[in-house]
Design brief:
Elements (H helix, E strand, L loop, with lengths): L1 H31 L7 H32 L4 H35 L8 H34 L5 H30 L4
Bound molecules: protoporphyrin IX containing FE.
């Protein structure tokens, strides 16, 4: 009885969340197609590019701040839990988000005649390539290694905690690259 009441409550919360998301998306589309500054499709690509970039970079920054805080915590289980969530977020959320940001950036470029040689465009492309390579070559395999170490040696064993500290340091550089790309996109230097 209680279980079905709880599932009914959570279903209606899910519907409310979906309704909020749809309302924000509809407002965004209405704004984009009524922009006096940009062409309709360009405005839509720009909106998606910037919104998803905010989500991606903001999420990375939040994980960084929590990592710095938890590195000083007395309870190693807390950083192990954060590392687990960071690995999940990186693969399931940030990787596709990065793909959307990249695709929308390319879509905008195709809709302009700015050319691909401008400094800020080159920095954007290099920054995106750097974060993709870091993710594929280091962050993903290291996250899997941490999961294996957690199984074999224990989540709070010194080897596991050392591997977690290493991944968090590299992730910090990764977020720094993203912030440099944001500064580059917003200021468009030397262009
Ligand atoms: C590393 C990932 C990236 C992030 C975090 C990012 C972030 C941003 C942000 C915050 C803006 C808004 C700038 C403003 O309104 O002043 C922007 C605009 C833009 N970005 Fe990116 N970007 C990324 C990658 C790319 C790539 C790879 C391209 C394609 C070459 C690209 C093309 C553009 C274009 C064309 C604009 C619109 C410029 C304008 O209309 O003034 N971005 N980006």
């Amino acid at each position: 009885m209680n279980t079905s009441a709880a599932s009914r409550a959570s279903w209606s919360r899910g519907q409310l969340t979906a309704a909020i998301g749809i309302a924000v998306a509809v407002i965004g589309v209405v704004f984009a197609f009524n922009s006096a500054w940009y062409g309709h499709w360009y405005a839509l690509f720009r909106l998606v590019h910037v919104s998803v970039a905010v989500f991606w970079v903001g999420g990375g920054l939040l994980l960084t701040v929590l990592g710095i805080k938890l590195e000083r915590s007395d309870d190693p289980n807390e950083i192990v839990t954060l590392a687990r969530w960071a690995a999940w977020t990186g693969e399931r959320i940030f990787a596709p988000a990065g793909g959307i940001v990249f695709a929308m950036g390319i879509a905008m470029m195709i809709n302009t005649d700015w050319g691909w040689g401008k400094f800020w465009v080159v920095v954007g492309l290099i920054g995106y390539a750097m974060t993709m390579v870091t993710g594929i070559a280091f962050l993903s395999p290291q996250a899997r290694r941490i999961a294996e170490l957690g199984e074999s040696k224990g989540p709070t064993a010194p080897e596991t905690l050392a591997a977690i500290r290493k991944i968090m340091l590299v992730a910090r550089f990764d977020v720094a690259v993203l912030l440099v790309v944001v500064a580059d996109m917003v200021t468009k230097p030397f262009s």
